Amino acid sequence: MCGIAGILFxxxxxxxxxxxxxxxxxDGCQHRGPDSTGFALYRxxxxxxxxxxxxxxxxxxxxxxxxxxxGKLVEYGADIIGEEAIGPTYCFVVRF
Length: 96
Known about the structure:
Blueprint: H1 18-29, E1 50-55, H2 59-75, E2 79-86, E3 89-95
Antiparallel strand pairs: 1-3, 2-3
């Protein structure tokens, strides 16, 4: 079954970032069937940085996933320079 979501911010006053709003909308559509969902947001890239986003779940499961991912990043020599949680996802900004 098809589900389509869209967003239009008018003016400068927002209570969510674009990414947060899109994640909330996709969470609302996921009950509609087995098809995959997704989106991509692009911003100006920093040449020596990688932005990695993972689906980590919520609660204790999310905390365990985040710690496991952090451990692997450090194990492979990544310098974690930024972190951000949005909904059930977690983003790391890293340098190698």
